[in-house]
Amino acid sequence: MGRYKEALMDLNKSLEIESNNAWVITSEEIYYMIGRYEEALENFNKSLKIKPNDAFELRNRGATFRVLGTYEEWLATFKEPLEIESNNKLVSRDQEVVYLKKRRYYEAIADLNKSLEIEPNNINALRIRGETYYMMGKDEEALADLNQLLEIEPTDAFALRIRGSVYRMMDRYSESLADLNKSLEIKPNNAIALRHRGEVYRLIERYKESLEDLTKALELEPNYVWALNNRGDTYRMIKKYDEALADLNKSLEIEPNDAWALSNRGETYRMMNRYEESLADLNKSLEIESDNAWTLGSRGSTYRMMNRYEDSLADLTKALEIEPNNAFALESYEKIGEYENRVNLRNYYYYTDWR
Question: Which architecture, in CATH terms, is 258-355?
Fold first, then answer.
């Protein structure tokens, strides 16, 4: 769910929310907005029964499906019990909300496909479908739409930002930076683009530039959770653990069940030798995302530092089953092997001497 959660946090314009409130929306407000879009959806459905090939109506219904999917994913982040009437299309259980969200995205794609058959070069339809593909993790399809859009409108800052994000997810960092740089030349104070570029800089170990972008993003949007998480991660990478904790603590005050922030704070605690606190965060993170290889590797490393080798091996083995080339888990696994070799050697000498 990480991709969806990241993408929805960046949809302040698409969702028509005031930028200063985009990161602190409540579940009640989400229900209100869902009601508005459900009403709009009904109107589009009626219109399309009369004019089934109206590209404008198809495009707008596709955009509405996409936004509804986003709201439902956003709602899934609220963990308090929800009292919902039996005839309400929403349900409180996370897995059903996720299913509904995915269905909305596929419905959006179906409408946008039909709209683009009628108007193949419509910039708005290409933009919406490209972003929807990105949110679904369909990077090649997203690139195809965004490339076509940018051939028509090379200075579309939004499309450049989304394509830069797609390239980042594909580990194509040079191309990602090129697009994000161009997007920020057009709109230099876009907090979302700054956050994405700051993350790319972190991934290529250009930490100074990363901190500059993320700090600027947070000056524009002080409660921008993903910027707080990224800056906390960057501070951790340069061993500024107190600063890292400050950002991650603030992020978790805003979103207490953010699995990524919990993992990052857990790893920060581990680096500070605060193992019990590390375990508490990593355990909670894995309750939310049980198959996250990085978090399993971090908890496995924490167990190793606490001399809980069986628990460590269990986590590291599971991490490597999920991601066989996970460098973090492999390194910790090798250290467990080194420990076992030392123990075996010590036992050998002990029994040899005893004899």
Answer: Alpha Horseshoe (1.25)
* Under 8 Å between Cβ of 297 and 316: yes
Domains of the chain, by residue range, sit at 1-119, 258-355
pLDDT in tens, 61-71: 666 666 655 54
- Residues 103 and 132: their CA atoms lie apart, in Å, by 12
Instruction: Locate 86 and state its tokens.
Output: 């039996």
- Note the Cα 5 to chain centre separation in Å: 5
Joined together, the tokens standing for residue 110 give 């179906």
pTM of the model: 0.70
Per-residue buried b or exposed e for 23-56, using 16+ beta carbons within 10 Å of the residue's own CB? bebeeeebbebbeebeebbeebeebbeeeeebbe
How many angstroms separate the CA atoms of 315 and 319, rounded?
6
Would you state the pLDDT for residue 136?
82
Please write the tens of the pLDDT for every residue from 74-90.
Answer: 434 333 323 333 333 33
Alpha-helical runs (H) found in the chain: 2-9, 27-50, 55-75, 94-118, 123-135, 139-152, 157-169, 173-186, 191-203, 207-220, 225-237, 241-254, 259-271, 275-288, 293-305, 309-322, 327-354
Q: Rounded CA gap, 195 and 336, in Å?
A: 37
Distances, alpha carbon 248 to alpha carbons 218, 235, 260, 267, 268, in Å: 13, 10, 10, 11, 9
Residue 22 has a pLDDT of: 35
